Amino acid sequence: MPAPADTAHPGDTRTLGFLRVTTHRGAARPIVHTPEAVARPYLLLGLHTTGRAALDRRGTTDVCRPDDLFLCDGAEPFALHQSEDFVLHLVRIPRHALALTDRQVGALTDRPPFADGPVAPLLGGLLRQLAAAPHQSSATALRLSGSITELIALLAAAEDLGPGSKDHGREHGREREALVRRLRAHIDAHLWDRNLTPASVAAAQHISLRYLHRLFEDQGSTVGRWIQHRRLEEARRELARPGRGDITVAAVARRWGFASASHFSRSFRAAYGIAPSDWRDGRTRPSGQTAGSLDV
């Protein structure tokens, strides 16, 4: 699928695991993204390594400086008006590959370009290194794509973009956030349990099922979706560990609480655009699939 539109200068596009990376460089000009109809929603992570630009999106304009990062919703238009020679890297990330709530994604995509904080320098440094050495083995590319999505999740957490409601007082909001952290910790500790359900989570924390659902709805998520996100993330990490080529997909599915290997495989492919066996073996696409047919 095409990268953000710049028909005169389309940029250099390559696949990195389940990500799509496009590099634009040259003299001052606008880079315009026009949304397209796609099967899987996605985000665009931008790293502006050289030059200055004005980022227009959602009716606002922000300055984009060297080394700034920004995130945009791929379903929304935006434009970068470059004012001088520039280098820009845009990373296309499947929305389902990010274990983030809708609220967290909205907060990240609303944020002006930035380069500060504990996580942004790590993420920016990794993207710069990838751009300098774009040719990676399939196995390495898959691991790096996973690292990028994990840093984005960490960025959301580090910037305190998690749960909370503007309709509640600050003290009550802190109590709710502490409760959600306990709920997530309980879920993480019981991902292996096939009997892990919203009802069992609510009972363990001595709250009503209705209140549990409301807490996750306030974050733009559901309990079931969060459980599946976390199971997929842990399964993906296990399959990516060195020396795990002999482990079966069925064994990983059982270890992380999936009802069956077939259900796990369907969920994994829907989230990452690749079969779990191909991820484990370091193949960016199944044998016989052409490079241009990977749908991310």
How would you describe this structure in keywords?
19% strand, Jelly Rolls, disordered C terminus, 3 domains, alpha+beta, 296 residues, four-stranded antiparallel sheet, five-stranded antiparallel sheet, Arc Repressor Mutant, subunit A, globular
Topology of this protein?
Elements: E1 12-16, E2 19-26, E3 30-33, E4 42-50, E5 53-57, E6 60-64, E7 68-73, E8 78-82, E9 86-94, H1 102-110, H2 120-132, H3 138-158, H4 170-189, H5 198-204, H6 209-217, H7 223-240, H8 249-255, H9 261-272, H10 276-281
Antiparallel strand pairs: 1-2, 2-9, 3-8, 4-7, 4-9, 5-6, 5-8
Would you mind describing this structure in some detail?
The protein is α+β, with helices and mostly antiparallel strands. The chain has three domains: 12-158, Regulatory protein AraC (Jelly Rolls); 170-218; 226-285, Orthogonal Bundle (Arc Repressor Mutant, subunit A). It has helices at 102-110, 120-132, 138-158, 170-189, 198-204, 209-217, 223-240, 249-255, 261-272, 276-281; strands at 12-16, 19-26, 30-33, 42-50, 53-57, 60-64, 68-73, 78-82, 86-94. Helix 5 (198-204) packs across helix 6 (209-217). The longest helix is centred in the middle third of the chain and has 21 residues, at 138-158. It is globular and about 60 Å long. This is Helix-turn-helix domain-containing protein. Pfam families: AraC_binding_2 (PF14525), HTH_18 (PF12833). InterPro entries: AraC-bd_2, AraC_XylS_family_regulators, Homeodomain-like_sf, HTH_AraC, HTH_AraC-typ_CS, Tscrpt_reg_AraC-type_HTH.
